[in-house]
Design a protein that fits this description.
Number of helices: 8
Largest sheet: 6 strands, mixed
Structural class: alpha/beta
Number of strands: 11
């Protein structure tokens, strides 16, 4: 069984960090969760837990993380960041993440982190030292500055210059399909400027996130955007396209 994913081989060669954004195919789930559903019942999904567990094993094998401890938070669309500084801390960090978190910072080797998506924005930030953060940025998280907080937490533990970090923005709902209500449009205009809200209230999450990341010192030239819309591209799960009943693809990172 094989899966398809997006990664940066040059980054892996440079600092040993594997970044991956998975597609939805190559797993064992069926129906609206077909087939590499990496979500959980705890997230309000109805796929069989044994299938999502097998899918996570499939993904770990394909990416080279087989047998590695994996931190998977309960995502709550807020601004909580959990940090793992040593493999001995994984159990405690996972317990904290179970209570709700939307970003995982890892500063040690041998520990993987994964968050799950079906239109929200996946962001992975990597330091040249090999420390990294994996972030789930729904619109509420973007407004709450979750990516900024994850970068600052990473920098505090890591010590490298934020200007030297790389950021990867994965597949998500693009402005063409992300029309929001008037209240959300006004919130984005107030927080990030009217330029992030297009005609008829179509919000550009990348523009907002880029503004957030550069505000805390990131080099805009080091922010890479995959440029894929999950609503339009059926290689990915989409909450909006499916009407809410769907699986979750993943953003994963680890350092060997």
């Amino acid at each position: 069984m094989s899966i398809s994913f997006y990664t940066d081989e040059a980054l892996f060669e440079a600092c040993g960090v594997r970044v991956a954004f998975t597609e939805r195919f190559g797993g064992v789930s069926e129906g609206p969760y077909e087939s590499l559903d990496l979500g959980t019942a705890a997230a309000g999904l109805c796929d069989a837990p044994e299938r999502t567990a097998e899918n996570r094993s499939v993904a770990a094998r394909a990416l080279g993380a087989q047998g590695m401890p994996l931190i998977v938070p309960n995502q709550i669309h807020k601004d909580t960041v959990v940090v793992c500084g040593d493999i001995s801390e994984v159990s405690d960090v996972q317990k904290a993440a179970d209570g709700g978190a939307d970003a995982v910072v890892v500063t040690c080797s041998g520990v993987a982190a994964m968050l799950r998506f079906a239109d929200c924005v996946p962001v992975v930030v990597v330091s040249p030292t090999g420390a990294f953060a994996v972030v789930h940025a729904g619109w509420r998280g973007v407004v709450a500055r979750i990516v900024e907080k994850a970068i600052c937490s990473l920098a505090e533990k890591d010590g490298a210059s934020v200007f030297s970090y790389n950021a990867y923005i994965g597949p998500h709902i693009r402005p063409c399909c992300f029309q929001v209500g008037e209240d959300v449009a006004l919130t984005f205009s107030r927080e990030f400027g009217a330029e992030v809200v297009g005609d008829d209230r179509h919000v550009d999450m990348v523009a907002a996130l880029t503004q957030s990341m550069t505000r805390v010192g990131m080099n805009p030239d080091r922010i890479a955007d995959l440029g894929v819309c999950t609503v339009e591209d059926e290689r990915f799960f989409s909450y909006r396209r499916s009407g809410g009943d769907c699986g979750r693809h993943g953003a994963m990172a680890f350092r060997i």
